[in-house]
Write a structure and sequence with these properties.
Elements lengths: L2 H17 L3 H11 L4 H22 L2 H5 L2 H25 L2 H9 L21
Helix pairs in contact: 2-3
């Protein structure tokens, strides 16, 4: 096997194994679960991973010489806080009855209850 294929294979397997179960995959799963367009979530996630990998491969360690490592970590942490807050706000705003009803294709009642038979008419007084 050629050295180029060995390098490609070892890079692929290292990055693939490193990405399994990490925060990027978990964030992608959360975004996909809150969207009805999983292929668009995949395209965005894959594009971001490719771009981040390109920056890492091209820039290498030189970015850390220009931008302090602490600042890079702070920016990354702030980005994850923003993403986490958006996910939390979306979950808090979602009405459980509406989410359940949408999953079964029905309508929700104003009081948020389940499906029931219509109330019998009230006799005139």
């Amino acid at each position: 096997m050629s050295p180029e294929l060995l390098l490609l294979g070892s890079t692929f397997s290292t990055v693939f194994l490193a990405e399994l179960g990490d925060k990027t995959q978990l964030a992608t799963m959360a975004l996909s679960g809150s969207s009805d367009r999983p292929l668009l979530v995949f395209a965005g996630s894959a594009s971001a991973l490719v771009l981040a990998s390109l920056v890492g491969a091209v820039a290498g360690g030189s970015l850390a010489q220009v931008v302090p490592t602490d600042l890079l970590q702070l920016l990354a942490a702030a980005g994850f806080v923003v993403i986490g807050l958006r996910l939390l706000l979306g979950a808090v705003r979602a009405e459980p009855a509406a989410a359940y009803s949408e999953s079964i294709g029905g309508e929700t009642e104003p009081h948020g209850g389940g499906r029931s038979a219509p109330a019998p008419p009230v006799p005139p007084a």
